[in-house]
Each structure stands twice: as C-alpha cells, then as structure tokens.
Design a protein that fits this description.
The protein is of the alpha+beta class and about 210 residues long. The chain has 4 helices and 11 strands. The strands form 3 sheets. A 5-stranded antiparallel beta sheet has the order 2-3-8-7-6. It has a 4-stranded antiparallel beta sheet with strand order 1-11-4-5, with no helix packed on it. It is elongated and about 125 Å long.
C-alpha cells in the first residue's frame, strides 16, 4: 500500500510540472469576437465666451476732386484791347498761370456763339458756297509772360456784329473762357479726353457753367 501511495505522488508531481510548463502563447489564436455596440455620444460642452471685437480702423481721408488743381475762368465778353480794325481784331488775356503752365500744362480757350455752339480755339469758318476761309480765330500763348493773344480775322468782307461783339443791344453774341490743366495733374483717362468736346471736358473736370 505504501508503494502505491508513492507512485500516486510521483504521477501528481509529474502532472503539476507538465501544467506549469504550458503558457498562454502556446496553441492557436482563437477567432476575433464580434464588435461591441457603440457607446452613447457624450453631452455637448459649454460654449466658450465670445472674443472681444477689434477696434474699427480710422477712416481714410477723402481724395481730392478731379478738378482740385484745374484753373478756369468765368465766361467773359471779348475785349479787343490790342487792335480793333474792320477785318482784324486782337485782345490780350492775362493770367500768371498761363506762363507757369506754358511748358507742361494744357491751356484751352473755348468760344461760345449766340446759338450756344462752343468751339475750341483755334477755330475757323468757311464759306458754305465756295469752301473758302472766311474767318480765322487763333490763340497764341506768349511764352512765360502770362499773356495769351486771341486774334480774329475776316477775309471776304468787314466783320458783322455777330462776328466779334460780346453783347449788342441786349443780344449776347460771343463769350470766351479758358481752362488751364497743370502738367502735374495725373488723372486716369485724361490722355483719352477730346479737348475739342467742351461738354466732355466740363464733365470730366466737373467745371461749373
């Protein structure tokens, strides 16, 4: 009986040693189990405080008007103060700005007649029958002296009242004005402006009548 008990103890000891030598890494990996159900979404966090609004920038200064440096006269009647002959007349118009803008600026003289037509000087009139030159009107800037000569000549006969008078017996026949555009004015579109078109010039530079 004692011998049988000894054998039993040896078998039990061998069994314990065999079990102790096995590990979890031994044997094939089992299949992956099914994915568990998704968890509930968490509650929304507290909204953060609104940031401080930045200060508004300082508004820029208004730009200069397109005619800020343009010089112009009122409409005036012709005054033939240099010579006044039956077929030739000349007046001298003086403004220091003529001389200062002689080289780089633009000096324009406009002549309006009693029917409202406005022409840029120089301006000539021709016979509707023969096409010959009847009346010439010219403008000459006298360098830096500040003087401009406006000269009118008639070739077929003596002048009529409507040719040279500013106002006669309550009727207005002729008026002039000048516009000086200094050379330092850099306005977009100025180069494409037709100076012969008085209405276009008036609108472009916002000139008052």
């Amino acid at each position: 009986m004692k011998k049988l008990n000894g054998i039993s103890k040896l078998l039990l000891l061998a069994l314990l040693i065999g079990l102790g030598g096995c590990s979890a890494e031994d044997g094939a990996v089992g299949p992956q189990g099914p994915q568990g159900a998704s968890g509930e979404n968490g509650s929304q966090g507290i909204q953060g405080e609104q940031g401080v609004q930045g200060e508004q920038g300082i508004q820029g200064a208004d730009g200069e008007d397109g005619n800020a440096n343009v010089i112009y006269s009122d409409w005036f009647f012709p005054d033939w103060n240099e010579f006044d002959a039956p077929r030739a007349k000349r007046m001298i118009v003086t403004d220091p700005e003529f001389g200062q803008n002689y080289d780089d600026g633009v000096i324009l003289f406009y002549w309006i007649t009693n029917n409202g037509s406005t022409f840029l000087v120089p301006w000539n009139s021709y016979s509707t029958i023969t096409g010959a030159l009847n009346i010439s009107r010219s403008m000459n800037v006298r360098g830096t002296s500040g003087d401009v000569w406006i000269t009118i000549r008639r070739y077929d006969r003596d002048f009529e009242t409507r040719d040279t008078f500013g106002q006669f017996e309550g009727i207005i026949y002729n008026r002039l004005r000048y516009v000086i555009i200094p050379g330092n004015i850099n306005v977009s579109g100025k180069s494409a402006l037709d100076y012969n078109d008085y209405e276009a010039v008036k609108a472009f530079y916002n000139l008052p009548d």
